[in-house]
Amino acid sequence: MGKSASFRSGLRHALVAFMILLVATTLLAVGKDNASYLGGTPDDFPVGGLRSRILDGLRRNKITNPEGTLDTGSASALVFDAGRDGQLTIAYRDVTGLAYGRTAKGMSKEGFLVIGWDPLDQYSKKAHYLLSIQYRVQSGAERIAVFELGKTLIQPTLQRLEAHTGRVVEFEDFEACRTYKSANECGFGEPGNLRGLTKVYLDAGPGAGRDLIVAELDKAHLNLELLSAPEGAEAVPVGTEIVLRFRGEEIRRPGYLQTLFGGRGEVLALRDGGIRTVVAYSGTRLRGIGAKPATAFAAAFVVAYREGNP
Description:
By secondary structure, the chain is of the alpha+beta class. 21% of the residues lie in helices and 30% in strands. The strands form two sheets. Strands 1, 2, 3, 4, 5, 6, 7, 8, 9 and 10 form a ten-stranded mixed sheet that branches.
């Protein structure tokens, strides 16, 4: 599937390996002209180190992310200037990867990520998008820096990073791509792209979400063939015509009797050597009743499939 497959493959690798999630903080939305440093693996940024900053914030019950300007105008390096928190400079020649989405890509177990929003936001219109910059330091070690960009910075920053580094930004999914490119450039599709397709690969990971999707498909009686990937393989099975890709999260909070659910997914139609996104779904369930996101996602696919195959 060439570049299109590479374009989509980032989603399955997008989970952060080690994350500190701090919802009850005083973090505010990043200014539209600024960038906020959410974390990563640099040893010398911010001043004193991120670990020290977190511990100090916990003592004061007030944790803030370094915010400042992200300058990509230079021909040699990007510079994040956070004032008294210091500067982080990354030479373009050292950049090995660029990713953009609702999760950080490439985080190692040594990394820290400080998140100041409700995790359920990431399954709603209030979603925050993260720019992950992977780069190599002089010793040869790989590092990553993760930023949230202000609204006016997204377009110029991604454009300049691609131009200066020679790297193409990998988008986690269709919605992340749409913050930068047109719907058509991001592979926008329509139900008609599903016409005549019957071989489906479900990429939902283990757990109840997968079971709920399968149950909804069985109930719909669409006569689809559900394909299984070869054991240990990450690639989409040969012959796949439709990919249902879903990621969900269960959140339990003190004082809440019910479990909260968030989920997002895509329906991808693979035909004629290309990939089109027919459904891009995000949703939550905040009450004790109603369809869970996995079921709602599967139902959205059923509607699209029937429309494309009247």
